[in-house]
Amino acid sequence: MWHQYSITIEDGQKRVRGRGFATVGHSVGMNTTSEHDRNLAAKLRSLSIEPAAFKTEPPERQARRRVMPLAMLGLAATASLAVVLFSRPEMPERIETVLAGFAGRQGATTSTGGAKAPAEDAASEQVRAPVAAWSTREITGSGYVVAPDIAIVFSKYEGRIVAVEVEAGDRVAAGQVLVRLDDAGARFALQGAEIVRQSAELTLAAKNIELAQARSSLMRTERLAGRDAMSAQALEEAKTAADRAENAALQARQDVAKAELDIDKAREQVEALTVRAPISGIVTRLNAHIGDTVLSREDSVRENESLLVIADTANMVIDADVAETNIAQIRPGLSGEAVLDGFPDQPFAVEVSKIAPVISREKGTVTLRLSLSSPPSGMRPAMAARIRLLVGEAGVGAHHPPSSFEAPASGLRTSG
């Protein structure tokens, strides 16, 4: 609109100037009219407005271009922080509690002076509640199910396997027959020891007869010597013969006792060829096969040379490793929960019973032994487990067992 108005004024000025040029060289009356027109044109020019004054941009547009990206960046950062905070399951409850505390404090401020102090106390208690909840944290770790009592069964003597009475996975009782071996040399040794004992018994009987005769002869000689019918030398010889016969009888008794010991030793070796279970449990590994010749316990130094392995699964535990940075918060009695990889949907309660006395230098962890409460019925040794302990008042139990244990392998037992 301002542009059209300016064009109209310029057209008027042109008409006035044309009039002036046309009146040049005329009379004085016409000159007066031309002067009037010039004055009018000057006034019109003073009233004209330049269009460029209305085409400048607002000064705020450049600043707005700089502010908008910064505002968008701040909004994105705020949204990311909100997502991280609300992803924690306990965060909404804590925020609700804090907001409730602030709301209670604001309500107390707007109320009368007499009711202000109790409301502020209640709000401060609600605000302190999440802070106390944050003092309880979790310690996580992983480990394996362990049978603390394991028996590695060897054969005490060399022999050939003639029977295997169990299979891997069988549950056995203490004293149950596991493997039978045969050794002809052991059987012959037992028979020879029994013959030697019989011979020793016969010898003992003969020596006892000789002792009785020597004592009878001594008594007769003493009676005769009392009547001066026997010389002193004969009496001394009779006493010597009696003592000799008594010593011979004692030696015969010792021979009989030695023969009985030899029989017991030979019998024990024969009986040891029947291998029995040292503990009750489950056969976890079976290396014995009919026809194999096994070495004696003294010659078998490796576990794979054993006959079988039995694990007591009645009282299994979990040995788990946690970071050594948590050792200041760990103590016997801490409770938590564990879950087995084989039973991921069946968590169960655990409690720290023992803490290893040494730290693993290679892994930077400390091993915990955890007692179990109502574990899954299908749990087996060497199952992988994950644990979570609660550090705080809620994670402390009433039971405080011994504070350390030697090592997971300390429960191994060898038999044979």
From TrEMBL:
<dbReference type="InterPro" id="IPR058625">
    <property type="entry name" value="MdtA-like_BSH"/>
</dbReference>
<feature type="transmembrane region" description="Helical">
    <location>
        <begin position="67"/>
        <end position="86"/>
    </location>
</feature>
<feature type="coiled-coil region">
    <location>
        <begin position="235"/>
        <end position="276"/>
    </location>
</feature>
<keyword id="KW-1133">Transmembrane helix</keyword>
<dbReference type="GO" id="GO:1990281">
    <property type="term" value="C:efflux pump complex"/>
</dbReference>
<dbReference type="GO" id="GO:0015562">
    <property type="term" value="F:efflux transmembrane transporter activity"/>
</dbReference>
<keyword id="KW-0175">Coiled coil</keyword>
<keyword id="KW-0472">Membrane</keyword>
<feature type="domain" description="CusB-like beta-barrel">
    <location>
        <begin position="318"/>
        <end position="389"/>
    </location>
</feature>
<dbReference type="InterPro" id="IPR006143">
    <property type="entry name" value="RND_pump_MFP"/>
</dbReference>
<dbReference type="InterPro" id="IPR058792">
    <property type="entry name" value="Beta-barrel_RND_2"/>
</dbReference>
<dbReference type="Pfam" id="PF25954">
    <property type="entry name" value="Beta-barrel_RND_2"/>
</dbReference>
<protein>
    <submittedName>
        <fullName>Efflux transporter periplasmic adaptor subunit</fullName>
    </submittedName>
</protein>
<feature type="domain" description="Multidrug resistance protein MdtA-like barrel-sandwich hybrid">
    <location>
        <begin position="152"/>
        <end position="296"/>
    </location>
</feature>
<dbReference type="Pfam" id="PF25917">
    <property type="entry name" value="BSH_RND"/>
</dbReference>
<keyword id="KW-0812">Transmembrane</keyword>
<comment type="similarity">
    <text>Belongs to the membrane fusion protein (MFP) (TC 8.A.1) family.</text>
</comment>
